[in-house]
Give the backbone structure.
Amino acid sequence: MKLPRRKFLHLAAGAAALPAVSRVAWAQSYPSRPVRVIVPFAAGGGVDIIARLMGQWLSERLGQPFVIENRPGAGGNIGTEAVVRAPADGYALLLITAANAINTTLYEKLSFNFVRDIAPVAGIMVVPNIMVVHPSVPAKTVPEFIAYAKANPGKINVASGPLGGASHVSGELFKMMTGAHMLLVSYRGTAPAVTDLLGGQVQVMFLSPVGSIEYIKAGTLRALAVTTAKRLEALPEIPTVDEFVPGYETSQWYGVGVPNNTPTETVDKLNKEVNAALADPKMRARLADLGGTPLPGSSADFGKLIADETAKWAKVIKSAGIKPQ
């Protein structure tokens, strides 16, 4: 049977529009089942806290559970790879941190390419690290600490979360720029590192406010300095490392990613909801309590931050000769 030309063209146009219509319908119905949020670090640390805050928000807004799943190991690479290998359907999210940008250069033989294989969704917040010491350390300022470390080689243990994380490279950069002799003690996650720091088994750590601010206020840890170029609003009396070591600057940041090729409509929907969270006064206040500054913007904005940070840390890692141990 032959169709009139006009009828044929009408049917062809309708068929061509079906993929677009189905994508829109997919986005409107997403999520229709629970969503996994992969945290590539141990439970209890700063990354885990941020994931749970955002997961609760998304669950309430989108009507499906956003289930936090901790996948620690290999400096965050195990959890990251789990998302890389997941179906690109929006049901596996990655809590991205600065470690992902650092690991791109730090690890030479990864089985994935982070920039290629993970699509940025949205930034959440940026925070400094805080240089904190156990109260048994006599130094009360950065210059006093540098002098103490140089006078006591081998006696200062610097704790870090997984190799390649912000706490690790913050400490390595400090050692490189000051000549302070510190022995690295790396942990699978921030929480066990903080436990040993509180117990005095290690003496110093570069820790995010998310995991340290309550201990600082309680006096169980002493803050010497923050690692960003500007002082922290939550602790304005604490100086920056840069005030004593010109040019020193590091920060931690958090965001959300999904497997590459996830439908654009799904990425846009998640971006919209994360930005809605960052505009909410209660969420902003909670992030401020944790020492963070919201990081709103498009998925492209977050992608640019990742690219810039990847390039920055590549230079530091190569210059300092930092290797995973």
Notes: The mean pLDDT is 89. The longest strand covers residues 118-128. The first helix runs from residue 5 to 29. Residues 57 and 88 are 22 Å apart (CA to CA).
